[in-house]
Amino acid sequence: MVALLGPNGAGKTTAISLMLGLAPPDTGTVTLFGGTPDDAVRAGRVGAMLQEGAFVPGATVRDLVELARALYPHPLDTDRVLTVAGLAGLAGRRLDRLSGGEAQRARFAFALAGDPDLLVLDEPAAAMDVAARRSFWTAVREYAAGGRTVLFSTHQLHEADEYADRIVVLAAGRVVADGTPAQIRAQAGVRDASSLDQAFLTLTTEKDH
Amino acid sequence: MRAYLRFELRRLVRDPRLAFFSIIGPVTTYVIFSGWSAGDRLEGLGAPVAVMIGLAGYGAVAGVLMVGAAVAQERAAGWLHQLRVTPLPPGGVVAVKALTGSLTAIPPVIAVGAAASIQHHVQLPAGRWIGLLLLMWVGTVPFTLLGLAIGYGLAPQVAVPVNFLVFLVLSVLGGLLAPTAYFPGVLRDLAHALPTYRYAELGWRSAAGHPPSVSGLAVLVAWTALFAVVATWAYRRSTAGR
Fold this sequence. Notes:
heterodimer; A: alpha/beta; Rossmann fold; globular; B: mainly alpha; two-stranded antiparallel sheet; about 0% strand
């Protein structure tokens, strides 16, 4: 699991857009699974939960999951997707009648249903309450444990600290640190026991001008 | 792609506004107003048939435009971006949108046709009913493109009123609501240049047993080409960059 960490405006969402082929890079190239992002997306190797994302009215949670399953070559079971995303009791619910946290879980279900090799989550848990957030991260971890890559962006330091194996810190559009949570601390010159907050502030303000 | 078509059709069926504007509206209008002109000859047909086709076209155009303009909301909500990060090809999304939009033309034709056959005992040979239905469906192509142009080209707050205004102007001036026979001369000439009139004319002529007129087809093709250019431009612009 990789966390893309940075303050608001650091370029997390832009980085994700580039990675997914939603925006073309001004300079340079983006490579995903040895090809272009578009190729990887068309091959069904990528699932993504974008930050913006109200759903369209008129469809149910089940319709949404079934749609995602039909679009990917090796989808997961519908029931499994619903359970993992914590939507088991809401399959028949219309998308426009979900609460903020439920809608976020529905978007997670949509991203997950195709069993992609790479799951990209842009600030995924922002609207979830504490309990939902906890079960969400447990589900994400289990998913990654099955041999897939999960990349998520967050400005919640403890989320990155607790769940990521690798953290990439962005500030003002540049990578300012890249490593395990322990390495990030070391790079910033803060003690292991101190929270990542200190390392984060050191890293992101030093390079800012 | 079939799965996405199914998904969109389900949403369509569940949309109460669509049924209201494209089916209940024209049927009610027909039931109330078709009696007034019942003795007249309009567009070479008995008034009950001519008014039936006009209002069926009115409902069809309403539905088709509504689906196209709804794309504006789907764009703003981020749904189209969400679809772009799935294996669904972007062209497929547009094709499905166009197809589902145009399919909304069929229920109003059937519903107003049923009202006409019950209320005024309008009778046509089975072949002409089928031909009418097909023409009223195929003839919505320019309006599908117009709807997509609005949906991809405008922000949702603007798309809805613009869509409504365009619909009202085109359907009233095109003689879908009130037949052009009751229009003053200048407005009648204007009507003949509009896609809505020429669209309904396909139905009027086929109900009378005539093939489409060359001038009518020329006008429809010209509008279709124009709307296709605008829709393509709007689509390209909306997918460029973010």
